[in-house]
Amino acid sequence: MGKKSIGEYKRAQTVTLYDAGFTISGIARQLNISWTCVKNAIIRYRDHGTFKDLPRTGRPLKLMPRTAHYLKCLAHGQNRTNVNIITPKLNDLSIIRVSSRTVRRHLHKMGYTYSVQIKKPFLKKIHKMKRIAWCKKFRCYTIEDWRRIIFSDESTYYVLKRRNKMMVWRTKDEKLASDCIEKISTGD
């Protein structure tokens, strides 16, 4: 069974009743809490002068803020694809050795997800200029003009799931960053 914490108000009541001369077991019966909680509340107030929960310690983080910043820098460019590439580079920098699982956990804490690269056509400057020229040429078309036009495109359909998806570590804001996109040929 774990310890159940009582609120600050109950602790204040406990200390007040104790100062008024009540016994620990009498306070426990009156407030309907265990005598251990009463005793701990009194000791906490005597030692620390507060009714609030004390800060709890835990296992310290393996990565210090500076190392975490370096990890964030490593999770860009060519390193985005695999934690097994990032981990040795991070271990070369720091004194403390970390596992790839620790690197994954810290990347998740920093807001990174391991996501599929978005496929976008690779557009050269000339492709962009041609697209803008096409838009300017047809910007005066009415709805009736567009109803007479049919657009068609070649598409590939896969019966089975594709296995060649490229995965990258990225944040939500980096969804369309150049190193998070899988560039496909436009056929020009």
TrEMBL record:
SUPFAM superfamilies in the record, alphabetically?
Homeodomain-like
UniProt domain Transposase Tc1-like: residue ranges: 96-138
Q: Which InterPro entries does the annotation name?
A: Homeodomain-like_sf (IPR009057), RNaseH_sf (IPR036397), Transposase_Tc1-like (IPR002492), WH-like_DNA-bd_sf (IPR036388)
Q: Which GO terms describe its molecular function?
A: DNA binding
Q: Which Gene3D superfamilies match?
A: Ribonuclease H-like superfamily/Ribonuclease H (3.30.420.10), Winged helix-like DNA-binding domain superfamily/Winged helix DNA-binding domain (1.10.10.10)
Q: Which domain of life is it from?
A: Eukaryota
Listed under GO biological process in this entry are: DNA integration; DNA transposition
Name this protein carries in UniProt: Transposase Tc1-like domain-containing protein
The organism that produces this protein has a lineage beginning with: Eukaryota, Metazoa, Spiralia, Gnathifera, Rotifera
